[in-house]
Each structure stands twice: as structure tokens, then as C-alpha cells.
Amino acid sequence: MTELKTGGAQGYLRIATEEAFVTQEALDMYGEILDGPDPDPGFKSLWGFYLRSEAERPKFIRDALLGLGAGRIKDMDDRGIDKAVLALTSPGTQILSKDKAVALARNSNDELHQACKDHPDRLIGMAACAPQDPEGAAKEIERAVTKLGMKAVIINSHTHGHYLDEPQFAPILEAAEALDVPIYIHPNTLPRGQVEPLIAAGIDGAIFGFGVETGMHALRVIVSGTLDKFPKLQVIIGHMGEALPFWMYRLDFMHQAGVRAGRYASSGPLKKEFVSNYLKENFIITNSGVAWEPAIKFTQDVIGKDRVMYAMDYPYQCPAYEVEALDNMDMSLDDKKAFFQTNAERVFKL
Amino acid sequence: MTELKTGGAQGYLRIATEEAFVTQEALDMYGEILDGPDPDPGFKSLWGFYLRSEAERPKFIRDALLGLGAGRIKDMDDRGIDKAVLALTSPGTQILSKDKAVALARNSNDELHQACKDHPDRLIGMAACAPQDPEGAAKEIERAVTKLGMKAVIINSHTHGHYLDEPQFAPILEAAEALDVPIYIHPNTLPRGQVEPLIAAGIDGAIFGFGVETGMHALRVIVSGTLDKFPKLQVIIGHMGEALPFWMYRLDFMHQAGVRAGRYASSGPLKKEFVSNYLKENFIITNSGVAWEPAIKFTQDVIGKDRVMYAMDYPYQCPAYEVEALDNMDMSLDDKKAFFQTNAERVFKL
Question: Contact at 8 Å (CB) between B156 and B92?
């Protein structure tokens, strides 16, 4: 394995766009939920493991998530990552009661802002918010973007089983559109009622359940007509688009078949002809968790090379060999530079 | 559009491998469930629509599903389909009570057998069974394969929320392995509790929910170690592998991470190193619903050209232009022949 260096000697900077952190305040709040009555089963499966297992992987991850200083910069250096776009890790504020969520959003944004100030050439922030308080969330997004220099909004998918296509969340979408910042919809565990069979089979998390949950969320945002109401909104989804690019033909065919037959009141005709038009015009895809040339090229081909961005998914998935594999993709330098650097510079206005 | 003809003039026969039929007995049973107390919500969304909507699509589909004679052969002729491999449409027997399921399996197998006898060069059957009675199902599979000439087993995914990895279904897997016939896991709507949010959003069916349900089923069969117990079993999944080929890198990475950390008692080490080994050695993928060159080629590349087969998904999705699009794929004649013809001949022993 060759040594990975920052600085762009390979012809592009590496900007990792779905990198996670957590604050001690959040971990303390998570611990309280785990110790409380009847915790959400998906949350318990996820954070009961990451917070309390003594296995190597969860121990590394909880330490690394808390790092916003020299340790993180060293891990970036070791992996050749020039810049990291950071977001409060899942479920962020969204498992909390409203008051706690509001406090955590504000405090974690301030903490992230300080880290970005300390490392202005290396760290970039996404704004947390508390969707439990949509009007307040819009104000916090505005503060974080205009006062703290945040470049996107992180939504850790559903909020107590509610999704961004529901009308109460309109202030959040309005704020993001008005401020011209993208919303990153990051996976969460499926809500109670849906998640239990996946937990029993050991597939509720990143292996499968996350993709179901967030693919569903993104598809809801499309078929509900939400993007017709917020046509300039840009939505980022990771994990190679949660497989929606691969499903694109079927999404288009079956959406049109359903609309023609008038099957659902909730999913009528859209302004754009196809579901895929929204994927190609309102979505940006990152390859977090998928350091795999075939899926990256497929998505570049069907969604567009200007809409596929690099992400590492640190610290959940961060072996250096993945960076090397992506450096070695059989792909023109121009396309690789768009993937690793310039798409992120455009999307986050760096 | 050029005229599509049967007979192989294009250099291969077209064998469609996930084609659906239904019997009047099944429709009558479905009607009873719909009229009964508190029908399963996913079933109600699906069959309440297909059985009772007067829109053009459901009317065409329910008529076409019942056709096992001249009408079906004409539709095959019109679309250039040389042979069709037929299965009792979803949810088949699996929404029924045990006694009704047993009766429907036997009767529908007899009816399908008669159709295949009437059109021996055109129609091929998959055996229905009633997983509600696993021992009886194994006997019915044996009867259907050895006496009726059926070439595979259709499992319309979960049976009242239960999946093939659960130990009570071992007799079914044993029978299929011993008789050397593949099991086709066809989508069903998600069970009660999981399906309701998807119904509300209009995405419970073929547009999205089916893929979630059946991708989950196939993944359960892998991570549970079921294929270590039945190593010769071959499983067919449609709809481009319910996106599992696209997820392959993440499945491998996260399965190994979970196993190393000992996260789940239900999902331990497997005999084969990777989840993807099972996809490449125990699964066959059809392109039902996905008449789309990029996804077909991707799957051929990552799973293997000998494991990707053509399916039309008649009558749910059967425009002739899709056949023409697949004829026109930029693909060698050898590979196209494997896709359209010879893989199916090998898998079903035609």
C-alpha cells in the first residue's frame, strides 16, 4: 500500500463529505434514554452497542466520534483526507424530547463551529437542528449558516417516525432553500414497529436497515411532491444514494403506473415527468460506506458525474485501503477530481 | 418499433422467468379476506386495488393473470416470448389459513400442470406450496416436481410474517435441495406493523416496498447461516436481485464488522467469507421489472453472467418496447443468449 498524503499531489484534494462527530452532551443524553423506560428499539440496538459494548469497533468509534481536535486531524492525515465535512452523528437530536433536542442542536453547532475555527483549512460543518421544533429549527439553521459558517443541514432522517415530506417540517425546507444550503438526509434506525424484525435478524443497522429507512425517506420526499414546493432544494443522500439510483427504472415505471391508475391519494402526478428527474436535479449522492468502483461508476453514469461525491463515513468505516482503492479507480483524472473535490466545493460553496 | 417474433431468429430464444398467473379459486379466497374482519393492510392495499379497481391497469392485470390458454400465448407471441416460466402470483397461498393454503397449492399446481401440458413448448411451471404446513409443503413440492414436471418452487416471500430462515421451514428447503430445483422468492407486501407507513406514502408495492421485503428475506437467508445448512440450494430473486447486488460492498463490510464485534447472536460467522459469496454461488438474479441495460450489465459484472436471467413480469409489466430495448442492449450475442435463454435452460433444466 502506498502512503496516502494530503495536499493534492495526486491531482485533486480529497474532501470527505459525510463524516461524523458527537458531543459528550449527546452521549450523556443517549445514556439517559438507554437507562430510561422502554427505549426506542432501533436506538437501543444502535447506541446500546456503540456506547456500551467493549468490542474493538464500538470502542474506537465512540472515542473517534468525540474527537474534533488533533486526533481527528491525525486520522485525516493518515488517510489522505484534506477536508472533512462534519455532521452530528445519527440520530443526533432526533431521538430526544423537544427541549433537549433544541439545546443539543445549539450546543453541538457551537462546538462544531469552534472546531472548524481551530482547523479552518480542514474541517467544514453541517448545521444540526431540532425538527421537533420546526420554526426554531429554521432559526437555528439560519444562525448556523449565517453566523457560524455552516455549509449544509444534517437531518438524521426520521424524527420520532416523522419525515421531511410532512407539512410541519416546511419551515426547515424553506430555510435551507432560502439560504441555498443542501440538506443531508443521513440514516437512522427504522421506527418502532418497523425495526423489530430487522433487529431479530441482525440487519437493522448499516448492513441493511439504514438503507431501507433513508431510501424510503428520500423517496417520500419525491413522490409526495415536496420538491415541487421547494424546487431549488438540494438533498444529499449517502451510501451510494441508498440504492435509489439502482432502482431508478422501477421507480419511474411503477410511479407512473400508480399515478395513471389513481392508486394513491398521497402520491399523485408530479411536476417533473419521472421520479428520476428529481434524483438527477435535486439530489447529490455520496459513496459513504461504498468504496466500490462499480457502484460509483454506475451512479455517475445514471445520475450524473457532477452529482456523485466522495465520503469516507469516518469513524464508522475508515480503512485507508478504501481511499487507495478509490484513487486507483479506472476513471479519468477530471472525473476523479469532480468526485473527490470539485463537486463538494460547488455543493458546499467551499 | 420492429416486430418481435418468437423462434430465435435474433440468435436466442427469449425465456421469461418470472411470469405470474392466478386461479379463480385464489381470487375468490382473496375476496373473502378483503371482505372479512381487519384484513392484512399490505394485502388490502395490493389486492383491494388489483381485484376491485376499475382503472385500466388493474383490470388488464386481473384478466391476464387468469389466462393460461390462448390469450396468454397470444400475448407471448406479440411480445416475442418463446417460453414463460409461470408462478402463482403473490401472495399466492401465503396470506391464507393453513387449510385453504394447502388446497390452493394443490389445485393451482394441477391447473398450471394442465396449462403446461396444453402448451408444452411454451409454458413451464413453478410449484406452489403452503409453507403454513412445512411437511405437507415438502410433499406437495415433491409431487409437483416428480409428477407434474414443475421446475422450481415459488415462495411468495413471508408467510404471515415468517421467513424461510426460520427452522420450521427446513422441510421446504430440504425438499428443494434434494429435488435439485431452485426456490424463487417473489415479493410480498411487508407484514402488518412494517407496511403501514409505506402505504400512507403510496410506496408499499412494486415501486419500493416489495424490494425492501424481499431483499430483507434474501439477506436473512444468508446471514442466518441457512445456506450453510443447505449449501446446494439455489435461490432466485427478481427485480435485479432486489438491489442486493448494488449493496454488495456494504453488505460484506458491515456483516464482517458486526460479526467481529459479536453484535448479534442471530448473525454470527458464516462458512463462506463474505455475504457476496452466497450471492455469487447460491443466487440467480432476474431482471423482472427492470428492463434497463445499466442495471443488467452491472449485475452481470458483479454477480456473474451465468447468474442473471431475463424475466418480463407479465402481466404486471409487459410493454413490448422493453423486449426491444433488451434485444438492443450493447452486449455480445453470447452474453445476450445466456441472459435470455441458456441460463434459464440450465437453472430450470429445460
Answer: yes
